[in-house]
Amino acid sequence: MIILPARPGRRLDAPRLIDFGGFLTPDSGGPMQRINRLGNRYALAITMPPVRGAAGRILVNRLIRGKMEGVRTNWPLDDFDPGTPNVANGSAIVIDGAGQGGTTLAVMNVAPRYAFREGQPISLEISGQHYFDFVSAPAKAGADGKVSLQLTLPLRKPPVTGSVLHVAKPMIEGFIVGSEIAWEQALSGYRENIQFEIQEAR
After folding, report:
1. Is residue 82 part of a domain?
2. Which of 17, 25, 90, 166 is most exposed, with minimal Cβ within 10 Å?
3. In the chain, which stretches have pLDDT less than 50?
4. Over pLDDT 70: what percentage of the chain?
């Protein structure tokens, strides 16, 4: 798994949902039906600013490797501030109990009274793999640091007790997809027009 460098910062992020569901529209004029299928996930298209010197070389090299090995990078928070979700001793927020599924996720080690907000990005790490999603409804942790979260998409893999929920810095993980990795090399030393998309693989 290739970790993309945090610097330089990205110029543009374009998230999207990968939807495996569909619609049935009858010829007879009857009601349209939505067919939902499991496995919906996310993608993130990224446009970089011109990058110079060693930073440009490293970025391009990691993108090339990412097509074969997969990549991981932070999800853009834009102007959203997640605050301080972890307990004071810095313990990770983890899954509270095995056998969870659907769109409800019980977690513990949250800072007491921490408030999750609708649309807040999170990523669940299971056996080293990040699964990105959003919180679909407001929820507040109790004094014991426990809370049940409602997710936007159904869980794609059952988490085990102790799996880490990343709240302060959620991540998206997948493969670099699309056509060839291409860029321009200016005489000034800048690498320009670097654009790529990460799609979650599962």
Report:
1. no
2. 90
3. none
4. 98
For residue range 146-182, list pLDDT tens digits in order.
999 999 999 999 999 999 999 999 999 999 987 667 7
How many independent structural domains does the chain possess? 2
Residues 33, 63, single domain; the answer is: yes
DSSP string, the chain: -EEPPS-SPPSEEEEEEE---EEE--TTS---EEE--TT-EEEEEEEPPPEEHHHHHHHHHHHHHHHHH-EEEEPP-TT------B-TT-PPPEE-SSS--TTEEEEE-BPTT-EE-TT-EEEEEETTEEEEEEB-S-EE--TTS-EEEEBSS--SSPPPTTPEEE-SS-EEEEEEESS----EE-TTSEEE--EEEEE---
Residues 145 and 158 in one domain: yes
pLDDT digits (tens, 9 = 90+) for 64-73: 898 899 999 9
